Amino acid sequence: MSIEIKAVKRDEQGTGASRRLRRAGMVPGVVYGADKPAVNISLQHKPLALEFRHEAFHSSVLSLELDGKKETVLLRDYQLHPVRNTLLHIDFQRVSASEKIHVKVPFHFVNADIAPGVKLGGGIVAHIATEADVSCLPKDLPEFVEVDLSKLEMGHSIHLSQIALPKGVEFVQLTHGNDATVASIAKTRGSASEEAAAGETPAAE
Questions:
Q1: How many domains is the chain partitioned into structurally?
Q2: Sequence-ordered list of residues with C-beta below 8 angstroms from that of 165, at least 6 positions apart, any chain
Q3: Cα dist from 37 to 34, 93, 99, whole Å
Q4: Do the domain assignments include residue 75?
């Protein structure tokens, strides 16, 4: 599903102009890239904030309607109010359908409850990474990458090279020879293996 947002060009710039926009319920921003001039824009805060809180907004190709014309963009940067947590500024980058993009995509961990290290060993899953930078054409960009933990044993880890990716998508770290750890299962105090060992200890005379 394509995420669509609407914006209009803004001529006024500077701190004062941005403050006036925010008081009027607007968010100042900019769209740049694709060998085109950067354009200062403003967006209505309420509909933008509703989309912004969704995970997919941060890792999907977006459709930006600017003064009646649609452009394909990615969210590249934003500023939040330190107290109210409202959007103060937002940046979008145009993308070309024929050029690969680099985007951080979140991991969705599944089947942790049936992993041998958890179910049999009583361990807990440690999420070493929650997202990774992927490279692909815009049409191939996944909203998230699923990490299957169903076969993970106690003390073992899952690395980037063990994660299945959609066709046309690759981990940027792997292309640079970095097979980073994504998740592992560690022992906990009172785990099943420790309790079993304790039960085998001979009673004191």
A1: 2
A2: 134, 142, 145, 171
A3: 9, 11, 18
A4: yes
Range of the domain at 131: 101-194
Q: Divide the 205 residues of the chain into consecutive groups of 10 and give the mean pLDDT of each group.
A: 89 86 94 94 96 95 94 96 93 95 96 94 94 96 96 96 96 97 86 47 44
Residue 118, by phi and psi: left (phi above 0), alpha (psi -120 to 50) or beta? alpha
| Residue 200: Cβ-neighbour burial (10 angstroms; 0-12, 13-18, 19+) | exposed
- Looking at residue 1, its pLDDT comes to 56
Domain boundary among 39, 59, 94: 94
Assess contact for 74 and 92: CB atoms under 8 A.
Answer: yes
DSSP secondary structure code for residue 171 in this structure: E
Question: How far apart (Å, rounded) are the C-alpha atoms in residues 49 and 26?
Answer: 11
For the whole model, what pTM was predicted? 0.82
